[in-house]
Specification:
Layout lengths: L5 E4 L5 H12 L3 E5 L4 H15 L3 E4 L6 H15 L4 E4 L14 H29 L2 E6 L12 H20 L5 E8 L5 H14 L3 H12 L8 H12 L10 E4 L7
Parallel strand pairs: 1-2, 1-4, 2-3, 4-5, 5-6, 6-7
Helix pairs in contact: 1-8, 3-4, 4-5, 6-7
Bound molecules: nicotinamide-adenine-dinucleotide (NAD).
């Protein structure tokens, strides 16, 4: 379905981004990976995905908090693949603290990586997408783009902002073949969440499994984690012809979190 198209998935060396990149590659898209990690492991990762799905892959290590590096990544995408057809704004970080204890530089980092980076990638991707009259922008927001949780001020503010940016992008592209939508996952067991499981286990003297159960029981009625593969399938739907008139939604996949 996506052969001949190129997807840039930010923060795709791990977790949800990697799951979505694999799902798009399975549909035939070439993938430009982005994200941090061990250089040798990353090279193996993108080459393995290329071989497994028979697509072209590459990696660019732009720091998504730095607009000049984001611009360099788009120049690379233009040279290597002729542009970006599917943009998945996924890179994100978390910091957990009460507002009065929240370090100002962590606030700035969360807003830069989780929100402002999506503005920069979107403004760079739109001219090429509009010219081809086809494009898909998928913003990885969160249930925290729809509801709040204590101690996550920067993250919740960034994710609500990302849902807002999604709506404006969808309106500005409404009469074109470009769509923009947000995905709002509940808990997904990735390194970002494992850190919160570890913190909880340490604080409450729990084992790993008990801490996971406690985390889920608090917010996610299903008692199950959402998986990167399930999120990848939703991203594929947004890219499909049937998704052409899905515009500006914030689609939760959250085990019932926001139904409460
Ligand atoms: P993760 O920690 O597993 O992966 C984050 C990715 O972002 C990694 O590839 C990392 O290298 C990259 N990254 C971090 N800082 C970066 C930077 N400055 N520049 C470039 N890349 C950077 O996290 P995840 O859980 O897979 O989260 C992915 C997205 O999904 C995030 O936006 C997160 O907020 C969102 N999300 C996660 C959950 C969850 O439960 N895990 C729930 C809702 C939303």
């Amino acid at each position: 379905m996506l052969s001949g198209k190129t997807a840039l998935v930010t923060g795709s060396t791990s977790g949800i981004g990697l799951g979505i990149a694999r799902s798009l590659a399975e549909q035939g898209a070439n993938i430009l990976f982005n994200g941090f990690g061990d250089a040798i492991a990353i090279e193996k990762l993108y080459q393995d995905v290329g071989v497994e799905f028979g697509v072209e892959t590459a990696h660019h290590n732009a720091d998504m908090s730095k607009p000049a590096e984001i611009a360099a990544m788009f120049a690379f995408a233009q040279d290597k693949f002729g542009g970006v057809d599917v943009l998945v704004n996924n890179a994100g970080i978390q910091h957990v603290a009460n507002i009065e204890d929240f370090p100002a530089e962590r606030w700035d980092a969360v807003i830069a990586i989780n929100l402002s980076s999506a503005f920069h990638t979107t403004r760079l991707a739109l001219p090429g997408m509009k010219q081809k009259n086809w494009g898909r922008i998928i913003n990885l927001a969160s249930v925290h783009g729809l509801v709040g949780s204590a101690q996550k001020s920067a993250y919740v503010a960034a994710k609500h902002g990302l849902v807002g940016l999604t709506k404006v992008t969808a309106l500005e592209t409404a009469q074109t073949g470009v769509t923009c939508n947000a995905i709002c996952p509940g808990w997904v067991l990735t390194p970002l969440v494992q850190k919160q499981v570890d913190d909880r286990a340490a604080k409450e003297g729990l084992g790993n499994d008990a801490a996971k159960k406690a985390l889920l029981a608090e917010k996610q009625p299903s008692g199950e984690f959402v998986t990167p593969e399930e999120l990848g399938a939703l991203a594929v739907f947004f890219c499909s012809p049937a998704g052409a008139q899905v515009r500006g939604v914030a689609w939760n996949m959250d085990g019932g979190w926001t139904a409460q």
